[in-house]
Design brief:
Helices cover about 40% and strands about 0% of the residues. By secondary structure, the protein is an all-alpha fold.
Amino acid sequence: MRQAQIVRWRENLEDLMNDHPDAEAELRTLVETIRQQLPPVQQQWVQRIEARDGGFAVGAQGPGSRVIVRHDRDTPPTGNGL
């Protein structure tokens, strides 16, 4: 979804610049002002998934991510431990 929005905003800004080339300096200032107000890029994501009362839960975050499985019960997991 985020990538689709990036493409759409890029296209909208290109259209704006084509229609109003004299607005380039003002637009660059606006973009830089917004960029400075954005939070820093988050380098770590935490995902918590719970299963209760005999439920089953699985989660993954993408390439290069680690999955840590913790079992709170005394009984060992079945299958592949996920």
